[in-house]
């Protein structure tokens, strides 16, 4: 990947990857979360933590919309920009017909691409956002996603009041929203290293036939395995190229499966793998079973903890790989499987 | 727009539009639909019409997935390509968590961007697909969307067995799927004119406070008005630049509102406006009230009737403007409005 700035090299790499000629800058990252996330290991790095996860609204869905709106506003203020400076907004969430997103961003009046990749959506949004910037279609874009424990439980599982038991393999949906501002130029205020998106690997749908919605890690691990394998091959690199390979929300169960699946392909990421779902909560004290999940899991972890490690030059290169389980309550009730997807984003610190 | 091939001209036009430097070619368009659509005015132009809208499946959702899969396979065969020749697939549908899409395309194993813009999704998919091609990020992509009368009624309204009455303003969800293959090169077999995507205008969310899900035309018309107004201003053209300005599924009610709203802005499209929702069914004989709707409405109309007019050189330039109502059953039941969005795609015939 040393020839990344060579203008003669095609942007298309291998089967499904892209290497940017003018890698877009991440000029701001914002995170807004709930009380539980604030009490977790990244609490001190999250921009805004709300004690009241309803945010004074009448419904969980409206609260989730508000989380996203606040994340966008925070990203704008950190980048010293106004909403009219943003050419396109790329966003999504877990709710049917993306209602958290639509109602959250409507009044910002930014031209909008609605995306759905379940919990992988922040990877999809950063990928398409980087494409818009590198291709000279936009100067500044925002990529943002949200999720909410209560709206997600209602959407996918049981009403909260039902108080059903959760198996060990179940994950805990992260409440909040995380986003980034991408630009074709360095930001005004550069704190620490300059951070850029070097490339992407767009995921394929991978279906291993898992049907247990209380075990999403197992459903998504094969997709993460597939994207990592293709990514390393497309880019011609070894896993050690990265300081960290950061999956989205495989959790404890899915992460073990991923490492095993990759070992079968003679790929060892056991030394430098990290999973946002494993890290965003303290498993023991916070009773979160297999770990965190949701569109906000990778988004908030990236926008709080990961970006800090890059800014502080503790890490130089990471592969962010948000993972998604592409099922719905309807598909589950109809006895269908849970196909997975994972989108890889190469993020590097300079200077 | 005469200087479209001038390499010095920025791709960014005005506030929210893009003019492509190397306008992507539409090298194939495919349409697969149900019996009712087959009996409509475009029936003879639709590639495959199925008498059994369940397609032998157990559920409406699985049937919708199959429609999309068939549309992709048909597009591939018309373009004389295999699925491995397609670098990225951009797709979406109306169902929560895009299950029609995920289960429809999983086995094709094409790297995938999931999109949601309600019935505007084919506009979003063609826009991002064209960006991928023009920006040199892909050589060939597919943009495809689906909808199904029965799965949509179940998702958004009442069970079919309930047999509720439909007001005049209600639309009829189109059953089927339509898609296009975009390429950076002319197709092998060129029938008629060469067709290219010249530019796009990405829509903003516009919310006029409409709450009646049986009147989606009224909810989407303000968004269509906004995108058309911005598009004409960004591109510096008059409505007469186009042979047709083709909205997605405003239907009879929404189309009248659009024309009135634009007249207030001193923009007259009454002479060259067409709405896919008004045209895809015969209103009188097919009992479809305000017209057709759904992600497949604009997709199938474009891939059957519109592309034929362009190929036959009856039209030279059209603005395709799929329209979407960004609501869900949950947001409706919680008393929320129906925000609208419309994405504009400039399609021109050469030669």
Task: Kindly list the characteristics that best describe this protein.
homodimer, Peroxisomal Thiolase, Chain A, domain 1, 2 domains, seven-stranded mixed sheet, 33% helix
Can you walk through the features of this model?
The structure is a homodimer of 351-residue chains. In chain A, helix 2 packs across helix 3 (99-105) and helix 6 packs across helix 7 (251-264). The first copy, chain A, has 351 residues and is α/β, with parallel strands linked by helices. In chain A, 33% of the residues lie in helices and 23% in strands. Chain A is built from eleven helices and 17 strands. In chain A, helix 1 (35-38) links the parallel strand 3 and strand 4. Chain A has two domains: 24-183, 3-Layer(aba) Sandwich (Peroxisomal Thiolase, Chain A, domain 1); 194-350, Stage V sporulation protein AD (Peroxisomal Thiolase, Chain A, domain 1, 3-Layer(aba) Sandwich).
